[in-house]
Specification:
603 residues, alpha+beta, GIY-YIG endonuclease, Nucleotidyltransferase, domain 5, 5 domains, 20 strands, disordered N terminus
Length: 603
Amino acid sequence: MQSILDQNKLAEAIKRLPHKPGVYQYFDSSDKIIYVGKAKDLKKRVSSYFNRDKHESGKTALLVRSIFKISHIVVGNEYEALLLENSMIKEHQPKYNIQLRDDKTYPWICIKKERFPRVFPTRNVIKDGSEYYGPYASVKRMKTVLEIVGKLHKIRNCSFNLSEENIAKGKFKICLEYHIGNCLGPCEAKQGKRSYNESISQIRSIVKGNVSEVISNLNRDMKSAAQDLNFEEAAHLKDQIEILENYQSKSVVVNPSVSNVDVVSIIDDDIFAYLNYMRVVNGAVIQSHSVEFKKKLNEAPEDLMLSFTAEMREVFSSDSKEIITSKALEANWDHATFHFPQRGDKKALVDFSLRNVRFYMAERQKAQEKIDPERHSNRVMKTIQTDLRMKELPKHIECFDNSNFHGSYPVAACVVFKNAKPSKQDYRHYNIKTVEGPDDFASMEEVVYRRYKRLMDENQNLPQLIIVDGGKGQLSSAMKSMDKLGLRGEITVVGIAKKLEEIYFPGDSIPLYIDKRSESLKVIQRLRNEAHRFGITHHRNKRSKGTFQSELLQIEGIGEKTAKELLREFSSVDRIRKLNIEELEKAVSKSAAQKVYKHFSKS
C-alpha cells in the first residue's frame, strides 16, 4: 500500500503535469513500468485516476494502489502520442496494458536494400533499410503476388554482392536462371541498373496494390511501342497488361469509386476485443488483418481502435487520407480524417470489415474452446450475464418446456446447464398432475412450483437463471409459482418466444432482441431446443406405453392414425363417447365412425 509520503509525492507530480498531449508512465515500488497511457490532456487524464473514491474496474483500483511514481513525455499531437504509446508498450510490456495476441508470425514481401534488389518472402523483418510489404494473413495471396511479379519481371534470386566493382572485375558468371529466361543477367552487366530499377518500381506499385496505375503506364508504353512499329515489344507489354488485369479481377473489389481508404472495425466484450483493419486501394481490398486484444483495464473500444489504427497504418505503410470506422471516433489527426458512415458504399465497406472480424472471432473462440474450455465457458456465461442484465454469473441455468397431445397425457421437461454445458444427470421429466385438458399456462405453473419447492425442501442449490419456453403467458404462469415460493427477484426468469426469438422479462411487455450472432442467444436456443427434445422424447415414450392403449385403440379396426384424427378433432375420449355417427364422420371415414359409435353405444 502507498504511504502518506508516497501519496504526497504523487499529488505533487500530478500538479506539475501540463495540459498538453503526451504519454504517461506509471511505476511500481520496484521502479518497474506497470502502465503506459496516452492523453490529449496529460493533467486531466492522469488526475482522473486519482480523484475517484471508487473505480468501476477492480483492476483499475489495483493499478492505482500500485502506482509509486509517475513520468510523462510531451508530444506535438494526439497521433504522435498514439505512436509513442504503442512503441513503449512493445518495448516494456507493462503488466496492466493490453497485449496484442497473435499466434503466428505473418509473412512479408521484402524488397532488399541492395544494388540490384531481390524480391522474396520473409517472416523476419530486419531494420536494414529494406522495404517490407505486408503482413500477409493469407500465404496463398502472398504467393499469388510473387507469382505475378515473377511472370512480369525477370528479377535475380541469387544473393551475390553485385557491386559495380565486382561486376567490372567479372567475379560472377551467368547461371541457369539466365539461360531459362528467369533472369536478365545483371551479374555480367547484361542488364543495366536503370532497367532493373524500372522493374523494381513496377513491383513496388503492384505489392502496394496500385495495379491500376501500373496497367495505365503499361498501356501508355504499349501504344508508344506500336507507334514506333516495335510490335514485338508492344505484344510483350500487352501480355503483361492481361496478366495484371486477370490478377486485378480476382481481387476483392468492393467499389471502384472508393479509391484509397483504411477501414477499421471492432467487436468487443468485457474480456476481449477483436479488430479488423482493411486497406482499400482503387476499390479493391489489398490487405486485411485481424487481431485479438485481451483487455486489462476495461479499455473503451474507441481507445482500442485508435491505437490499433495507428499501429496498422505504420505496419502497412498506409498514407490514406481517410479512415472509415465501425464506431464514431473523436480524434484529430493532421494527416488523416475519420469517417463513421451510416449508409452507402462506405457503410458497405464497414459491414464487410465487420464480417471479417466476426469470422476471425469465431475461429479464435473455437480454437480457444479446445485449448481452454474453462475460459470459453466463462466468456459465454459473462456474455449471457451482460445481455440479460443479471447480477450474478449464470453458472447454473434451467429451462422448462411443456408437451401434450391435444390435452392428453401432458408432460414437462426441465433441462440443466452448468458452466454453459449440459448437465444431463440433472435433467428431469414431469407428468402433469393437476391440470385437465390442454392448458400450457397451468402446466408451466405446476411444474415450476414442483421443481423449486423440492429443491428448497432438500436445501439444494437454486439456479441463477430460469428460461421458460414460451412468451408472456407462460412466463407469467411461471412467475405465479415463483411468487408462491418467495423467489421473485432472487432468480432471473425469462421467457423465449419461438417465432422471432424474443426474450421477455416479468412485468415488461416490450421484448429484448439479442443479436442473432450472439453466443448468449445460441446458448438460450440450445437450452430451449434441448428441453423440447427431452420433453418430446418422454411424451412419445409415454404415449407408446399407455397413451394409445386407451379405449380408442381397444376398438377393433381402429388404428393409431384414426385415433390421432379423432383426438385432434374432439380433444378427449369423453367427448368422442357422446358423439353420433354424423359428427364422427366429420373427422374419420364412415366405416371407422360406425365402429367407434358401436363400441361406445355398448358401454
